[in-house]
Amino acid sequence: MFKVFYKYSACIKICTNDLRILCDPWFGGNAYDGTWTQYPYTKDVANFVGRFDMIYISHIHPDHYCPETLRVLFKSYGEKKIIIADWGEGKTNYLSRKITSDGFGHLLVVKNNTIFNDTEINIIPNITNSVSDIDSAIIVSSKSKRKGVLNINDCIYNKSHFQQILELKHKLKIEFTLFCLGYTGAGPYPQTYHSPEIEREILFKKSNEKKNSFFDRYKKAVKEIPSIKRLPFAGKYLLQGDLSVLNKFRGVADALEVKEFDKDAVILDDGGDAFFDIENKYASRERTEFYEYPETIKSKSDYLWRTAISFTPTQSLLKRLLLQSIKRAHAKSECTSNCIYSIYTYDDPKNIKVIWSSIKPYEGKTPIITFNCRKDSNPLKVTGECRIHAHLFIESKALFAVLTGITHWNNYEVGSVFQVRRVPDEYDGKMQSYLNFLSVV
């Protein structure tokens, strides 16, 4: 037997005669500080997932590593080993730290190669030599059948990473019968960079551009890594609560759209029991209907920063925290040009509508602080021309929570928590990464 069962988003279960590997199970309600939810929603998670022998977690993002889901599964099926990538000496293993701090350290197996009889498991970290490296890919193969499943999860294109994968394929003397890869993207753009009230046409245009850019990335990966069939997966989510009005502008595709340009794409149906048979190269059941999403989605509880913080922090307190946070973030900055952030806060969550009601909500407003991300600069001396000036608007409780380590900037970005108006509207990855270290802890 060699089958791949589709569960939800990036969660698949790879089953061989030797073992059942559950990949990236996310069924909790707290992903990205409570901003994300699943659709369709699964109530009885344990029965839906079914029995398994070990868990592979590709990276630290909460729609891949979900401790809430692990506790539910372990309660029903007992504790299982958790295998993750070994990043080697000199690289911080953020996932290992997080899993250990959550109480699962005794289950960790940090190893890139494992063999169980006829089944071989190879994990390939996606090393780009950035301090923000977190992603990994996995190959599960049968030595006797010379077939394998390649799952690159959220890994973006990296020539050396793809070369490692191809070298392993050659070394193992296997075909990639099923290639599991992303076809769409989460992230905050464009829905938090333009007004959903007065810039709808711009948002629809840019969200369509975003969809097509991820399709191009998919096509590039398929072209470079030969495979028999593809499973376009991951990134399947909806925003819930106040922010659910942004769903239509996210530029997130339905996997069925991939069939329009990849005839060998397999869209396994929902329900948890649909599978692709690696040995016989067929799908048990495919989804054929596009999803129809609700306009808004209520959440069972409020967002984490609102429930965790019982007071409204003052601007003076937030500025003190920001000054300390900037010192820490600047020491890790990889930004090489003048990229400026100005941060503005509001206390009442309903005030986000004031931001949405203006194309330039920063005009006439005074930020708490303005700073330069360029690594060889004094961040607080903002002089000369800047390449990008990003005006960031955020709830005061949310800012306090992220600066003190209760929440994380990356969760906020992916959860569409804060609004940004960027001048000009250009992306700089190193400027974006700066925020990941903007905290006092």
What does the model show?
This protein is of the alpha/beta class and 441 residues long. It has two domains: 2-283, Ribonuclease Z/Hydroxyacylglutathione hydrolase-like (Metallo-beta-lactamase, Chain A, 4-Layer Sandwich), CATH 3.60.15; 304-437, Nonspecific Lipid-transfer Protein, Chain A. Helices cover 27% and strands 22% of the residues. The strands form four sheets. It has an eight-stranded mixed beta sheet, with helices on one face. Strands 8-9-10-11-12-13 form a six-stranded mixed beta sheet, covered by helices on one side. Strands 18-17-19-20 form a four-stranded mixed beta sheet. Strand 11 (147-151), helix 5 and strand 12 form a beta-alpha-beta unit. It is globular, with a radius of gyration of 22 Å.
Instruction: Work out the count of structural domains.
Output: 2
Radius of gyration: 22 Å
Distinct helical segment count: 12
CATH architecture of the largest domain: 4-Layer Sandwich
Distance between the termini: 48 Å
Uncertain spans: none
**Beta-sheet strand percentage?**
15-25%
Q: What would you call the shape?
A: globular
Helix content: 25-40%
Strand arrangement, major sheet: 7-6-5-3-2-1-15-16
CATH superfamily annotation of the largest domain: Ribonuclease Z/Hydroxyacylglutathione hydrolase-like
Mean pLDDT: 96
Here the CATH topology of the largest domain equals: Metallo-beta-lactamase, Chain A
Summarize the structure.
This protein is an alpha/beta fold and 441 residues long. Helices cover 27% and strands 22% of the residues.
